[in-house]
Amino acid sequence: MLDDLISRVSLEAFAGATVFGRGEEYFTAGAVERLRVTDGKVTASVVSTQTYRVALWDDDNDLTYDCTCPHAADGNFCKHCVAVGLAWLAEHAGESKSSVKSGRKKRHDPWHAIRQYLSAQSPDTLIELLLDAAQRDDRLYQSLLLKTEQTGGTGNVAAAFRRAIDGATHIRDFIDWREVGTFAGNIDQVADSLAKLLKPDTAATLVELAEYAIERTEHAMEQVDDSNGEIGDIVYRLGELHRKACAMARPDPAKLAERLFRFETTLPFGLCSFDAVTYRDALGKEGLRRYRELAQAEWSKIKPRDRKDSYDAHRFRITRVMEQLAEANGDIDELVAIKSRDLSSGYHYLDIAEIWTKARQPDKALEWAERGLKAFPERPDNRLRDFLVVAYLKRKRNDEALQLTWVQFEEQQTLDHYKKLHDVAGKIGVWPAHRSRALALVAEAIACETKATSHRKPTPSAPNYSFRVEIALWEKDLDTAWTAANEGICNRSLLITLAGKLESSHPDNAVTLYRRVVVPIVEQTNNTAYEEAIKLIRKVGRLMKIRNQSQQFRDYVADLREQFKPKRNFIKLLDGVARASVAE
After folding, report:
1. Checking DSSP bridges between strand 32-38 and strand 41-47, what pairing results, if any?
2. Which of 169, 336, 392, 413 has the smallest CB count inside 10 Å?
């Protein structure tokens, strides 16, 4: 039962403290709308910058959840789920299993009450109620009309569906994200009705109508902000219906191939796959042959791409069609020939090299990778270099592998490039010498940057040791990291990370670093910065208490209060820290 599964404690356990807090803010702000409980399932909408649909239900004594937001799509119990859970709790506050056992009235179920009322009405009354509702609800009207057509009540089913599709996809002005829910709901209603045509006697009609609905919807989406993906999901569903209907109805394979190829290469968004591989069974040999004929005819018009050519959507689509056909046939030479039409970047050479690697043709792979490196001396792709490093190491061409890795580090001194140098030199067994060389280069770069002047920096600056600290942290050399951090300026996040690692072994040094970053954080003057500063101040207090320096900590807090007295929101938080320290 939901009573056993949903509570503030369980919601926070599912979401974590941070996400729970955000969800509580949404609930408090009244963002939860249209809360419904039907058959043990809680559904609602949560309105923020976008509208998200949430469902919570009991699945074999486990709380199961779903939300249309990206965070939930990754499997997380999101803030929207928290907000709906809290709304459900608020609506049913005070009601519990104990109230049922004590004989108090059970929770009111509005749907049950409505069902009981309708069950007591005569057919004529129900018809009048439904007709009255249909006059005010266009979606209900369209649903009833389509049901009437499907039962053979009037006219042509296909024509009725086309009218419904036209109505659902008709757009006068641009539809932004706030209004997209209604528009999507109308199309979804038609999709629900179309799904009922997936039967042997109506599958052929469904093939035609699904194509019409997909094409109309895709073109309508050019005037819709579907950033939440609601309409895209419906189009994908229509595509699944179309594929199943084709498998059931077995339309003329050549004509089907022509329609599929047109959709695959012309629809504005290409949300459904109309490629030959997806429809292989429905197309058969005849349809596949026709599909390939159309693709090759269009492909013959495509010229090799020059690196200066701009992006061409049509070229991209027909190229992908040809690649899929070659991949389906397992023809590596054909696939490479297709990809060779576009060698406008180093990555495209790498793409071909990886194809040959997968085909267990390492020599051809190496040849293409080296060609790519030579073709782009001014704009080399580091992924191509990395590929060659691996290939050279396998062939014991160690000097070439090391040189390519050094080039990357010399071009851009980053921790990732330092790690690459470490890995390659380590495999060769020469890391100590190359580590000294790399660190000397880092020191030289720091000195050069310090001395450099410009119109924005007319005088030399303090040395920035951030990168040296970053390397030391990665190497777990805390002594060097501490020394480097105190030789000049350093990235704040690195100082906080270093302080955290020094807490157990060198608590005084950790306190020094935390205190060093607190002031610039508070000077940002925003509530988020204040909260971050308070967390660090609390850490300072904990470490100083361990060192029997509670009075010194209270003095530190008093100094901060005096320094930042005008920042009222920060002072309120700081006073809480002060009260806690006195209580201890």
Report:
1. antiparallel
2. 413
